[in-house]
């Protein structure tokens, strides 16, 4: 592979010499100057090549990228450039980034001063597909600042494979929001618990404001201070995240599909479920039930769920709710909370699956999560100028009304439902989970 490339300055010099030779047909005295210029340009080009080749070998470029990246989040690749070169150099930094990132131009232009400390550069990436990303080599195109006739290609062999998992960044952000005082700023609602907590936690000293009904008289009699029983919300509930992988979940919003949004939210909410001492489980299905993780709260449960979500893809088929119902009936003996991530575009789509949803809801607490098409709001707000615009807006409004009707039908049948924009999916689902816990809906 060639490492030598002639720079634009070199081509300009050769062009000027050719012009001199052309003009020498009219002014013969220019002819010797043309040969002198050609010889000087060739000499300087060779000299520049040896200079830049020697300097380039003294420069080291390193790339730093995490072994695991988060889906749909902005992250950074870091580059450090070190060298003991003695000339002022300039160049372009390139990286053979994974094809999923769709970036083919140079990352940055650089100026390297002799004796300069290490230079650091960052490049923002946003993975929009789960899977394995292959980073290739880092390439530095260098030329001397003074002459700049030749560019030298220095290749640094730094291949690396990186795995893109459901967003761990979002998971940590929502965990921080739920368990800190900044919950409202993140959109998390604090729901007041109804009635008394129902699981004994510990005995402690009475403080002003405690319910006198919770005084433990036996413990009080053994000491000189009032002691009260402290209770907590019920724990160890089974919470399953059921993900529909049918063709409707392939619909894209802001570079991610509905399936990707569901997967990111599942990981974020599963983490909170486990932090609340409940059991988290997973079911994914399309034409058949593809994977199932039994609800548990063991230490590696979150990692197990994340690994199962890593390579989930839509099958472009209609989801088989009959198979889902059979799996739930045979596999879930204890009453559980089921969060079903799906997408019904039309009322008729819902009616076909309604008997299965009702059957599931009889034995478990089912929460159906559907998605709003946020792009339709833009169409409604546009000005109407032609008959075609009227037809388009009528269809848009009818589609939006169907979503509202789907939500109303499910609520009428006693099925919990969330109708949400994809960007608000995690917040709204977390709020529903906290509401269920607070109201003791089982």
Describe it.
- The protein is α/β, with parallel strands linked by helices.
- It folds into three domains: 1-21 and 33-165, Immunoglobulin-like (Sandwich), CATH 2.60.40; 168-191 and 235-439, von Willebrand factor, type A domain (Rossmann fold), CATH 3.40.50; 199-232, no CATH class.
- It contains eleven helices and 21 strands.
- The chain has helices at residues 8-23, 30-56, 168-178, 217-221, 258-275, 301-309, 321-331, 347-363, 374-381, 387-412, 425-439; strands at residues 4-6, 59-64, 68-70, 75-83, 89-95, 108-112, 119-125, 131-135, 138-144, 150-156, 160-165, 199-205, 227-232, 238-244, 252-253, 256-257, 279-285, 289-296, 336-341, 365-371, 416-420.
- The strands form six sheets. Strands 18-17-14-19-20-21 form a six-stranded mixed β-sheet, sandwiched between helices. It has a five-stranded antiparallel β-sheet with strand order 1-10-9-5-6. It has a three-stranded antiparallel β-sheet with strand order 2-4-7, with no helix packed on it.
- A hairpin with a 3-residue loop joins strand 17 (279-285) and strand 18.
- Helix 3 crosses helix 5.
- The protein starts with a strand and ends with a helix.
- Residues 193-197 have low confidence and may be disordered.
Task: Detail the topology: elements first, then pairings.
Layout: E1 4-6, H1 8-23, H2 30-56, E2 59-64, E3 68-70, E4 75-83, E5 89-95, E6 108-112, E7 119-125, E8 131-135, E9 138-144, E10 150-156, E11 160-165, H3 168-178, E12 199-205, H4 217-221, E13 227-232, E14 238-244, E15 252-253, E16 256-257, H5 258-275, E17 279-285, E18 289-296, H6 301-309, H7 321-331, E19 336-341, H8 347-363, E20 365-371, H9 374-381, H10 387-412, E21 416-420, H11 425-439
Parallel strand pairs: 3-11, 14-17, 14-19, 19-20, 20-21
Antiparallel strand pairs: 1-10, 2-4, 4-7, 5-6, 5-9, 8-11, 9-10, 12-13, 15-16, 17-18
């Amino acid at each position: 592979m060639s490492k030598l490339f002639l720079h634009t300055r070199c081509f300009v010099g050769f062009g000027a010499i050719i012009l001199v030779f052309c003009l020498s047909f009219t002014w013969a005295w220019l002819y010797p100057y043309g040969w002198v210029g050609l010889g000087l340009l060739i000499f300087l080009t060779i000299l520049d090549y040896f200079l830049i080749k020697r300097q380039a070998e003294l420069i080291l470029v390193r790339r730093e990228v995490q072994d695991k990246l988060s889906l749909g989040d902005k992250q950074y690749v870091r580059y450090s450039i070190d060298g003991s070169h003695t000339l002022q150099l300039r160049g372009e930094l390139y990286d053979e980034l994974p094809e999923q990132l769709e970036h083919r131009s140079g990352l940055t232009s650089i100026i390297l001063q002799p004796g300069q400390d290490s230079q650091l550069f960052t490049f923002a990436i946003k993975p929009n597909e789960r899977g394995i990303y292959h980073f290739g080599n880092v390439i530095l195109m260098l030329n001397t600042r003074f002459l700049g006739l030749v560019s030298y290609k220095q290749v640094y062999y730094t291949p690396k494979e990186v795995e893109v998992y459901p967003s761990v960044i979002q998971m940590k952000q929502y965990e921080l929001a739920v368990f800190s005082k900044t919950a409202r700023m993140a959109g998390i609602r604090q729901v007041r618990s109804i009635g008394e907590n129902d699981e004994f936690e510990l005995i402690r000293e009475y403080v002003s404001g405690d319910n006198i009904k919770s005084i433990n008289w036996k413990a009080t009699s053994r000491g000189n201070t009032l002691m009260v029983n402290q209770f907590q919300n019920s724990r160890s509930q089974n919470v399953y995240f059921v993900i529909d992988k049918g063709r409707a979940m392939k619909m894209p919003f802001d570079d991610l599909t509905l399936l990707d949004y569901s997967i990111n939210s599942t990981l974020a909410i599963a983490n909170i479920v486990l932090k609340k001492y409940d059991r988290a489980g997973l079911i994914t299905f399309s034409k058949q039930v593809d994977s199932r993780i039994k609800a548990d709260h063991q230490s590696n449960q979150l990692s197990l769920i994340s690994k199962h979500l890593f390579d989930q893809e839509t099958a472009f088929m209609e989801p088989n709710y009959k198979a889902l119902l059979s799996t739930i009936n045979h596999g879930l003996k204890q009453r559980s909370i089921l969060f079903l991530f799906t997408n019904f575009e039309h009322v008729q789509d819902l009616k076909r699956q309604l008997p299965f949803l009702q059957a599931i809801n009889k034995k478990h607490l089912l929460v159906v999560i559907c998605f709003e098409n946020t792009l339709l709001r833009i169409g409604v707000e546009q000005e109407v100028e032609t008959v075609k615009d009227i037809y388009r807006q009528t269809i848009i409004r009818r589609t939006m009304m169907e979503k509202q009707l789907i939500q109303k039908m499910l609520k009428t049948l006693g099925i919990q439902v969330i109708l949400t924009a994809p960007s608000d999916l995690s917040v709204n689902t977390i709020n529903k989970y906290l509401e269920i816990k607070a109201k003791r809906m089982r």
